[in-house]
């Protein structure tokens, strides 16, 4: 039995990265703590830099990665926000950092529990974002991501997101590869233009005028564009070792479903349970989990949702004054459908507010009753204006 | 500004914002110059003070470390070399003296009083 | 330390080459050129955001003959930490050369102010790096704003001399002493008064095992309002007036690198630059502020002398 954090740390131990630079923040702290133990016990030969801030953590990671080292780190919430400035730089430098992002609400007010308000603001930073449902998936995704991020056609850093405390701290059975198998799969990192090659000197981070900036950014975007192909190839190879395969989306009983709930990360388990119950009651319910959020698998989402009678999108973060991130993506993906798919957006679980089966059931009830009024609905929120039964939490 | 021949399509841009070492040697910063340092080889004692102090690495030397001249492809005409030369071997002359077309008059913020203090 | 022969140095190609876009007569490229003149080993350089970084890397050109990286403004200390650590991890595998040295530089903006935390972290962690501050006493890349290094009474664009205020009201922080307080093996302060002082100190810093910090005062002709040609002379005045004492601290032992022979009032240093012109207006000479500057210089000098004395016990 292990937790999401410890599964992440175990994968790190097996991969034995060259450099880890990290700064503690709840709920991701366990990852660098556990890893520091591995360093102290000589179980890895990584250069572990216990830096003085998250900003320096990600900066040191960029420096090490550009140098030619395989690099990993972890953070959460305000730590992620402090790193914000450096994320697009890491992506532009094509630094394939593997980053354990343990989702936690972004203050204020201070709250240590899960929502996605820390990772979602980074969705346009040029990184790959993968959201895991459980600890096993966290482990498998770390092993996968090293190869994915470092692939010559991708060369893009990756956030491996897991829900703070829910996934990061709950113990569940996790199956690990042998150290040899994990290391063999990960292989070695070969960087194009490593900074440490003093005989072939290059400069990173130039000042670029309008006449070249656009081309450099477009070149960078191609790395993300290549992710679906490389992800598929790499995932199949890993699945041959583990017997577990994860797509960019997970379709749970969506093929013949009338009503589908779209959700990410750990809350998917609750939604799937409710789908099972509803199926027994004769309701054709389904659940679509979006696992890879960047690059967004729009084609797969459209394919899964086209022709449905109703779709509910559950976001665990808000975009104040706008449409929440997952809802915006799903609606955008469905724009090309010939027949309009009715979509209703919901926000749930901010600051670790629990998401109960009764909440999921109410969402399906909305869909089947054709309740598609415009405007977002908040799940589990105490609201004077809401119907009495919705205030019960 | 990069020369038009250097502009690349996005597919051909090196990844990672990379540029290559010492490529700025293609950049003719000498075009900025309004005053030109003129070296009097007869007076020069090759003490290398100008070489040490030149912000633009524009003092040229031979294999015996003797000063051979000034690289006008790069020299911006700041005049540091003339000021630090103990032998008075370098004098600053308007670029217009070297062009057929009249050069633009030198501009810029009024300097402080260092000139007075140093008896310039 | 291996011998320093200027003639030999001319045969070497310096890490910073021609074609950079720094202003004519700027002290920063002079400082960077001199800094690297005595170093034999291959180096990797990190630059904090600033004039020097921007002007040396205008795409698609680079004025760096050695590997160079710029990440952002406030994190040169962290970036060089990551590179040095990567080298530690990778050198054993024969992937890269063994003897690489790691140097970060920043202006006073990137070092005294926004980058102080990353610098402090790097010094505390003991990376084998050298950090050079080219200190022109203000934010020049954005147009001569005041910084934590700007001297009292200097007119900067965010502390302008006006009808009411006489330029910057506060004294600068002493970053060299802040660096020294990290108990690192080598700290030095110098300026462009004497190239050999810069060359020797940076060479010593780079060859020292562990973190080293060198603070180089460099004139910005635009901010200081001096004739670009006068950079060396103004630096000489800074040293002779004791405005900027040149010294080093090796393993805790302070040593003055140069003691001015005759007394030069700080007024001479101030007068040499347009940024203090408001102190010297005809009929309105700010004798009070000039005297206060002299008192500050004297007090700072006494403090330094005491440190020298007590460290040599």
Question: What would you note in describing this structure?
Answer:
The complex is a heterotrimer of chains A (393), B (120) and C (313). Chain A is an alpha/beta fold. Chain A has helices at 4-15, 30-40, 54-67, 77-83, 87-92, 135-150, 179-186, 210-225, 227-242, 267-280, 298-305, 325-334, 357-368; strands at 19-22, 47-50, 71-75, 98-103, 128-131, 158-163, 202-204, 249-252, 259-263, 285-290, 292-294, 310-315, 343-347, 377-378. Chain A is 38% helix and 16% strand. In chain A, helix 1 packs parallel to helix 2 (30-40), helix 1 runs parallel beside helix 6 (135-150) and helix 6 (135-150) crosses helix 9. Chain B has a domain at 27-85: Alpha-Beta Plaits, CATH 3.30.70. Chain B has a two-stranded antiparallel sheet with strand order 2-5. Chain B has a two-stranded antiparallel sheet with strand order 3-4. In chain B, a hairpin with a 5-residue loop joins strand 3 and strand 4. Chain C is α/β, with parallel strands linked by helices. Chain C has one domain (6-311): 3-Layer(aba) Sandwich (Rossmann fold), CATH 3.40.50. Chain C has helices spanning 6-9, 27-36, 51-56, 76-90, 108-113, 116-125, 175-180, 195-207, 221-224, 231-240, 266-271, 287-311; strands spanning 43-47, 68-69, 101-107, 130-135, 186-191, 212-217, 247-250, 253-256, 280-281, 284-285. In chain C, helix 3 (51-56) links the parallel strand 1 (43-47) and strand 2. The mean pLDDT of chain C is 96. Chains in contact: A-B, A-C, B-C. At the B-C interface, strand 1, helix 1, helix 2 and helix 3 of B face helix 1, helix 2, helix 9 and helix 10 of C. Strand 7 of chain A pairs antiparallel with strand 1 of chain B, so a sheet runs across the interface.
Layout of secondary structure:
The complex is a heterotrimer of chains A (393), B (120) and C (313).
Chain A: H1 4-15, E1 19-22, H2 30-40, E2 47-50, H3 54-67, E3 71-75, H4 77-83, H5 87-92, E4 98-103, E5 128-131, H6 135-150, E6 158-163, H7 179-186, E7 202-204, H8 210-225, H9 227-242, E8 249-252, E9 259-263, H10 267-280, E10 285-290, E11 292-294, H11 298-305, E12 310-315, H12 325-334, E13 343-347, H13 357-368, E14 377-378
Parallel strand pairs in A: 1-2, 1-3, 3-4, 4-6, 5-6, 9-10, 9-12, 12-13, 13-14
Antiparallel strand pairs in A: 5-11, 8-10
Helix pairs in contact in A: 1-2, 1-6, 3-4, 6-9, 10-13, 11-12
Chain B: E1 19-20, E2 35-39, H1 49-53, E3 59-61, E4 67-70, H2 80-84, E5 90-94, H3 114-117
Antiparallel strand pairs in B: 2-5, 3-4
Chain C: H1 6-9, H2 27-36, E1 43-47, H3 51-56, E2 68-69, H4 76-90, E3 101-107, H5 108-113, H6 116-125, E4 130-135, H7 175-180, E5 186-191, H8 195-207, E6 212-217, H9 221-224, H10 231-240, E7 247-250, E8 253-256, H11 266-271, E9 280-281, E10 284-285, H12 287-311
Parallel strand pairs in C: 1-2, 1-3, 3-4, 4-6, 5-6
Antiparallel strand pairs in C: 5-7, 7-8, 9-10
């Amino acid at each position: 039995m292990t937790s999401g954090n410890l599964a992440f740390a175990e994968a790190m131990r097996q991969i034995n990265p060259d450099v880890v630079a990290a700064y503690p923040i709840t709920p991701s702290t366990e990852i660098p703590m556990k890893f520091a133990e591995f360093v102290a016990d000589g179980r890895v030969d990584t250069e572990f830099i216990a830096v003085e801030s998250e900003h320096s953590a990600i900066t040191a990671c960029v420096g090490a990665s550009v140098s030619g080292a395989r690099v990993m780190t972890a953070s959460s919430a305000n730590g992620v926000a402090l790193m914000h400035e450096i994320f697009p730089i890491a992506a532009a430098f094509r630094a394939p950092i593997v980053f354990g992002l343990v989702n936690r609400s972004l203050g204020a007010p201070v709250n240590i529990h899960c929502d996605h308000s820390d990772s979602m603001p980074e969705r346009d930073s040029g990184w790959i974002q993968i959201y895991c449902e459980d600890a096993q998936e966290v482990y498998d995704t770390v092993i996968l991501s090293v190869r994915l991020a470092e692939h010559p056609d991708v060369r893009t850093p990756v956030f491996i997101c897991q829900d703070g405390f829910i996934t990061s701290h709950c113990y569940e059975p996790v199956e690990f590869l042998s150290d040899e198998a994990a290391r063999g799969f990960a292989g070695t990192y070969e960087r194009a233009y490593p900074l440490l090659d003093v005989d072939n000197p290059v400069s990173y981070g130039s000042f670029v005028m309008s006449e070249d900036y656009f081309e450099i950014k477009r070149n960078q975007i191609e790395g993300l564009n290549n992710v679906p192909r490389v992800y598929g190839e790499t995932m199949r190879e890993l699945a041959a070792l583990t017997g577990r395969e994860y797509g960019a989306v997970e379709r749970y009983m969506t093929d013949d479903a009338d009503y589908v709930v779209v959700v990410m990360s750990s809350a998917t388990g609750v939604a799937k349970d409710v789908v099972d119950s509803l199926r027994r009651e004769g309701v054709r319910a389904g659940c679509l989990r979006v696992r890879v959020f960047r690059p967004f698998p729009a084609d797969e989402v459209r394919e899964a949702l086209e022709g449905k009678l109703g779709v509910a999108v559950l976001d665990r973060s808000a975009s104040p004054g706008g449409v929440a991130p997952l809802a915006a993506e799903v609606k955008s993906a469905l724009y090309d459908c010939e027949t309009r798919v009715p979509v209703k957006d919901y926000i749930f679980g901010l600051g670790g507010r629990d998401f109960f089966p009764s909440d999921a059931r109410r969402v399906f009830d909305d869909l089947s009753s054709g309740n598609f009024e415009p405007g977002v609905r908040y799940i589990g929120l105490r609201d004077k204006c809401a119907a009495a039964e919705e205030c019960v939490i | 500004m990069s020369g038009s021949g250097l502009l690349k399509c996005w597919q051909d841009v090196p990844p990672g914002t990379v540029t290559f070492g010492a490529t700025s040697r293609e950049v003719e910063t000498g075009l900025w110059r309004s005053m030109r340092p003129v070296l009097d080889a007869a007076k020069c004692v090759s003490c290398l003070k100008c070489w040490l102090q030149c912000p633009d690495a524009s003092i040229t030397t031979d294999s015996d470390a003797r000063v051979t001249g000034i690289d006008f492809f790069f020299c911006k005409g700041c005049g540091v070399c003339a000021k630090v030369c103990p032998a008075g071997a370098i004098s600053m002359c308007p670029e217009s003296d070297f062009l057929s077309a009249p050069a633009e008059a030198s501009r810029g913020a009024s300097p402080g009083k260092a000139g007075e203090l140093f008896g310039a | 330390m291996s011998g320093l022969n200027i003639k030999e140095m001319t045969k070497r190609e310096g890490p910073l080459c021609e074609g950079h876009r720094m202003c004519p007569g700027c002290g920063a490229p002079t400082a960077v050129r001199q800094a690297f003149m005595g170093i034999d080993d291959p180096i990797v350089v990190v630059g904090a955001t600033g004039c020097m970084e921007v002007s040396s890397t205008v795409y698609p050109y680079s004025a760096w003959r050695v590997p160079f990286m710029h990440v952002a403004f406030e994190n040169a200390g962290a970036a060089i930490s990551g590179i040095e650590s990567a080298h530690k991890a990778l050198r054993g595998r024969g992937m890269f050369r063994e003897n690489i040295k790691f140097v970060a530089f920043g202006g006073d903006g990137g070092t005294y102010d926004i980058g102080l935390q990353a610098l402090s972290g790097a010094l505390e962690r003991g990376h084998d790096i050298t950090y050079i501050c080219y200190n022109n006493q203000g934010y020049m890349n954005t147009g001569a704003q005041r910084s934590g290094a700007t001297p009292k009474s200097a007119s900067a664009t965010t502390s302008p001399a006006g009808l009411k205020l006489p330029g910057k009201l506060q004294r600068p922080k002493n970053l060299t002493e802040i660096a020294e307080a990290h108990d690192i093996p080598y700290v030095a302060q110098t300026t462009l008064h004497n190239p050999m002082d810069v060359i020797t100190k940076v060479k010593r810093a780079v060859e020292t095992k562990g973190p080293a910090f060198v603070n180089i005062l460099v004139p910005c002709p635009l901010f200081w309002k001096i004739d670009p040609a006068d950079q060396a002379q103004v630096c000489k005045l800074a040293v002779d007036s004791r405005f900027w004492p040149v010294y080093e601290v090796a393993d805790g032992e302070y040593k003055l690198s140069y003691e001015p022979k005759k007394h030069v009032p700080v007024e001479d240093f101030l007068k040499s630059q347009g940024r203090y012109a408001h102190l010297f207006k005809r009929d309105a000479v700010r004798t009070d502020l000039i005297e206060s500057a002299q008192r500050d210089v004297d007090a700072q000098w006494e403090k330094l002398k005491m440190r020298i004395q007590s460290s040599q016990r």
